[in-house]
Amino acid sequence: MGHIASKDAYKNLEDRINWFTQGAPVSDTLYKILQVLYTEKEAKWVALLPVRPFTAKKAAKIWNTSEAKAEKFLTHLCEKALLVDSYHNGVRKFVMPPPMAGFIEFALMRTRGDIDQKYLSELYYQYMNVEEDFVKDLFFVTETRLGRVYVQEPVLTNDNTLHIMDYERASHIIEEAEYIGLGTCYCRHKMLHAGHPCEINAPLDVCLTFGNVARSLSEHGGYARLIDKAEAMDALERSYDHNLVQIGENVRENPAFICNCCGCCCEALQAARRFSPMQPVATTNYIPKVKEETCVGCGKCEKVCPIFAISVKEDENDNASGTNKKGKRAVVNTEICLGCGVCARNCPTKAIELQRRPVQVITPVNSTHRFVLQAIEKGTLQNLIFDNQAFANHRAMAAVFSTILQLPPLKQALASKQFKSIYLDKLLSSQINKNKNKK
To answer: Which of 113, 183, 266, 280 gets the most CB atoms within 10 Å of its CB?
Structure first.
């Protein structure tokens, strides 16, 4: 392989990771994490790879080596879950996953002996649970969230199910998936190694991945195990039984993952607790409502809420119905509630029911839509258009521009300002004129 001149390999890799819309704040801890995950050679070479999917031929040109040697090395990186591969019209392509949900999690989605998982978990805990910059950047920098919550379907009434959209159902995602992977829950695995085991003893084997991500993780290194739809539904039911919250990629079409999360280990739910009332993930379109006449103030809902959004308080109505012997009732903090439905599932008197939120939560259509929205909000749209200082190919450009043209005018204006492109300005002007002519 050709000689690659560089400064420190891990510093270059840090820069490459932060070329993503979703990055990772630089710190001594991140540097140590990268040293565990990557050899110096791997760090040096990965730092040069494009952001968008690329072929072995493209990598070979960047690395100044043969296509065969490049593909062998890329496959090796897939085996370490530092890259994932996919096939488009028979052409194999590779992409570096973002930190979350991506290579940080993949490293702990199975037991492995090639790295010190206990040491890595301690570094992760320091980076995410102590230093906090990564978590704040991951969950709160953009208005468009990385993840979204799925409602627990068993608690929906017939009236509720008439209005739920297919993409709001975790069961629908499972039914539509071409590939389904089952792996170890990264969060609980990390916390176990870091000396903070799950407080509710939730199962580890309930992490679901879908599509090419599931196939790649299963084929290379066994980070996930391909399963059928029945086993995936079983994982979902086991998660319901342990009061876990379903959090998936914040898209309507083809989400890459659904995590089954506990409040004591999951970074997103921990962030919801620590930084309340800010919400780290998009909520469901549901909100729990307490029926005062049947609430007995038992406090079970308060105990199971993963983010402390519900509490039992003295009943100001002085228990006029006489059913609440303790004079207490459950009260929902709607400002922070995620609408997961765990409280309703656990209410012994069925005093909590889910109702549709008055304002609909908007979910991005697909990953490109989400990436563009987040890039606009973060001011990094140019990183999707220009990649390693090389102009994007026409197909990738078309995907980004197509998404921008469907955004509201304010988002379009922000995109144009960031990109400073005459081509984009002309596209937007053309779109505005078309809209005027339709009126």
So the answer is: 266
DSSP state letters, 380-401: -THHHHEETTEEPPHHHHHHHH
**What is the spatial distance between Cα 368 and Cα 435, in angstroms, rounded to a whole number?**
24
pLDDT single digits (tens) 162-195: 678 999 999 999 999 999 999 999 999 999 999 9
d(CA 399, CA 401): 6
pLDDT of residue 390: 40
**pLDDT the model gives residue 259:** 96
The tokens for 45 are 């070479």
- Of 257, 237, 238, 239, nearest to 247 by C-alpha is 257
329, β-bridge pairs:
313
Tokens describing residue 408: 């509201």
Query: What confidence tens digit (pLDDT) does each residue in 216-273 have?
Result: 999 999 999 999 999 999 999 999 999 999 999 999 999 999 999 999 999 999 999 9
**pLDDT lower than 50: segments of the chain:** 1-6, 319, 388-392
Asked if 397 and 423 touch (Cβ cutoff 8 Å), the reply is no
What is the DSSP-derived secondary structure letter of residue 54? B
- How far apart (Å, rounded) are the C-alpha atoms in residues 203 and 53? 34
Q: Residue 235: what are its φ and ψ, rounded to 5°?
A: -60, -40
Give the separation between CA 213 and CA 423, rounded to whole angstroms: 34
DSSP E strand boundaries for 241-371? 245-249, 257-261, 286-290, 310-314, 328-332, 352-356
Query: Residue 3: what pLDDT?
Result: 44
pLDDT, residue 72, reads 98
Residue 350, classed as helix, strand or coil, is coil
Residue 73: both structure tokens together:
């090395």
Please report which helix (H) or strand (E) contains residue 414, including its range: helix 409-419
**Residue 81 one-letter amino acid:** A
What whole-number distance in Å separates Cα of residue 342 and Cα of residue 372?
32
**Residue 226 class from Cβ within 10 Å (0-12 exposed, 13-18 middle, 19+ buried)?**
middle
Residues with Cβ within 8 Å of 208's Cβ and at least 6 positions away in sequence, in order, are 174, 180, 181, 182, 232, 235, 236, 257, 258, 259, 260
Peptide bond into 408 cis (omega under 30): no
- In angstroms, the CA 86 to CA 73 distance is 16
Task: Give the separation between CA 272 and CA 280, rounded to whole angstroms.
Answer: 6
